[in-house]
Amino acid sequence: MTTLASSRRGAPSPDGLPSVGRRLRLDRRYLPVVGTLVVFALLLVVGGARYDNFLSVGVIANLFINNAFLIVLAVGMTFVILTGGIDLSVGSVLALSGVTAAYLLRAGVPAGVVIPLVVLVGSLIGLLVGAMVHVFEVQPFIATLAAMFFARGLCFLIAPESIPIDDETFVALASWDTWAGGQWRLTSSVMIALAVVAVAFYLLHYTQFGRTVYAIGGGEQSARLMGLPVARTKVLVYVISGTCAGLGGLLFAMFSRSGYSLTGVGMELDAIAAVVIGGTLLTGGTGFVLGSVLGVLVLGLIQTIVTFEGTLSSWWTKIVIGALLLVFVVLQRLLALRRS
Amino acid sequence: MTPAAGPADRAAPVVEMYGITVERSGVLVLDDVDLTLRPGEVHALMGENGAGKSTLIGALTGTVPIRSGDVLVDGEPRTPESVARSRAEGIATVFQESRLSPHLTVAENVMIGHEVRRWYGIDWARTREHASAALATLGLEDVDPRAPLEALSPATKQLVAVARAIVLEPRVLVLDEPTSSLDEAEAARLLGVVRRLRDQGVAVLFVSHFLEQVFEVSDRMTVLRGGRVVGEFRTAEVERAELISKMIGEDIDALQALRSQRLAHHYAGSGEATLRATSVGRRGTLEPTDVDLSRGEVVGFAGLRGSGRTELGRLMSGVERPDSGELWLDGVRVQLRTPGAALRHRIAMSSENLREDGIVAGLTARENIVLALQALRGWSRPLSRGEQDAVVDTYLDALRLSPDDLDRPAGELSGGTQQKVLLARLLATRPHVLILDEPTRGIDIGAKLDIQRRVAALAGDGVAVVFISSQLEEVVRLADRIVVLKDREKIGELSNGPGVTVDTIVEMIAAELDELDDEGS
């Protein structure tokens, strides 16, 4: 029991990434995340060696800009998966949020009203899912599958066609950016995404709610017998995931300057893939939100490399992601086996 | 029966439970149970497996719904709703098999739910300090509070669970089998902590199947049997032997006939063992043990819960693999790696929780019966309906199963019928050695009698039968020979005869206890 001594000083122990250089021995819980970090670095090296201009400010900045919405989705998904659940509705909720925003903006509703409203739509769907999971004890898979169809159906009810967004305030917000040192510029969407990550990190590691999320993933019955508020927490994680999906829809609308019913088909799977590649166990209880961010960046880098290659069909992205996912799941399994 | 007034009696009770009745799927698991916990007193809850101890704790902490009865805390009526609520009222519970979160750190497991919080959220440094302090009182200074819980040994985990309970300085501390995975030194340290808390005025409810520890630490005890209170005693005034017989209870006279019948057919013993275990043991489970089983003989394994009676059966039937010793079947050394391998050697075991684990609720009784036989034959050679009927019919009469039940889903059948179905399943494989662990637990008296008759008949047919039961009467009634176990060790063997009674076994176990006491003092 003394072999795991690792984080003797500094930040709280259940935090994100330890600074590897300072500690020789690494806590096993961080291994999957470190694995992701290694893959990320490898992809950067491979890309940098094969293509000119790969390691440029533009490419790296675009990695964040193009994936801001996915980062937000993955953060919400991390909460759900940490409790041992799953949320299949986020892709559809993202579309619903985007379509609603575009529709309302076209109808002349001011952006200041639309923006909080569409995020709330996501929260509301999350609340419904949470209630189904908690009150009626529906499997999260089924409950969120129902919500997925429901939200997608609503999109088409609102508008089957793509609605362009030309509301001035919204466009101004979408194209706003600020200087962040050197050649780096920080766009509004990236700032929002990073803020979401920071809030999620705080919630997970510095609040009782966050610790309860982990405890539920480690064993729901145990968490209940430890006297933790299991019911409330389980509902809340779906609310958080729904809210993140609503916010993700907003970011995607900012990114594409439109709202379209068919956006985000299968995006929930990208989010799940990012979370798993980021080192979170699908059985719940272990994982870090920063890992999920890394997972998104790895997915984004693969896509960038495929784009740089030029001759490759974009489906290669899926194949590589599939292979990577397989490797990570097997690695996690091996880690779990070694532990027991 | 009424305990004499002592100093603790004058203190007002913290917790009073009156007429607690709990029903689970139509069976009363607690029937009109009273319990009073007073400050500054360790109250032991005694009883065999299934007596209702854990259910009573569940009723107190709100994890088990109460059908009727009253719970009073400080004289005020309460409805226990949840662990969180009872914790808020100062009742801390350490549940059996330490219910903690494996991925969280040790410190978190102690502190989660009551972390030290500041304006910015959880203050981890202070939180860890509190956890370390609680761990230190239990002698766990060496444990890194930042290590994940899953890295710890079961014993340390159990102590961490206790640390979690005491860190909030509760007024009532409920300990359900807190010492089950502790070694002697660790247990002694824990009992020391319990005593200290008692002296500070905490009311402790202590459940353990280790009698010595109960006698060492408790002031008062309530004995439960079959969901009812047998009595409340002051520990100082109760005899060990008397207590054991109270826990185990007496049975219905109708079974006496079987006893005399068995005595009449008492097996002389050919001296040739069919299954012989030589120093079979497993670290932490059972000390190396020698046992011989002969054809036509019923051997009873007697002992209290945790004595190793079940473990010995499991080690001899491939359910668990021994790490020492050898098994010899008809003079040939065998290695039983799995229950399936044992079955191919015609050694069958029905385990204690087989009714929960073993019955496939969705299949009919008939399908459940042929399951093991089919598995033995291999799935490529299915039993025809005619063969199935022949097998099932054989046991229909022998076990007095109702034909109507055969085609009903097994999950709908009563406990006794399910047990019969399981027995029929094992018998269908025509075992030479049959090990039955608690085959009569939790079933009605009629089914008990049927099963015991069948066991006697099996021995008559030349099967070597092992009968494991917490009901010593049953063991004495059925067995030709009784292997007595205590604290994971075989302490003796009795050849059953007219002179052997339940008391003979109880005295053997109690004598052992007294000896241990002498060593301790």
Question: What can you tell me about this protein's structure?
Answer:
The complex is a heterodimer of chains A (340) and B (521). Chain A has 340 residues and is mostly helical. Chain A has helices at 31-50, 57-82, 90-106, 111-135, 140-158, 168-175, 188-206, 208-218, 220-225, 230-256, 267-277, 289-309, 315-339, and strands at residues 163-164, 177-179, 185-187, 258-259. Chain A has one domain: ABC transporter involved in vitamin B12 uptake, BtuC (Orthogonal Bundle), CATH 1.10.3470. Chain A has 13 helices and 4 strands. Chain B has 521 residues and is α/β, with parallel strands linked by helices. Chain B has 3 domains: 7-248, 3-Layer(aba) Sandwich (Rossmann fold); 253-346 and 431-520, 3-Layer(aba) Sandwich (Rossmann fold), CATH 3.40.50; 355-430, no CATH class. In chain B, the strands form 5 sheets. Chain B has a 6-stranded mixed sheet, sandwiched between helices. In chain B, helix 9 (240-248) crosses helix 20 (502-520), helix 14 (365-377) packs parallel to helix 17 (415-428) and helix 17 packs parallel to helix 18 (445-460). The longest helix of chain B is centred in the C-terminal third of the chain and has 19 residues, at 502-520. The radius of gyration of chain B is 25 Å and the shape is globular. Chains A and B meet through helix 7, helix 8 and helix 9 of A and helix 3, strand 8 and helix 5 of B.
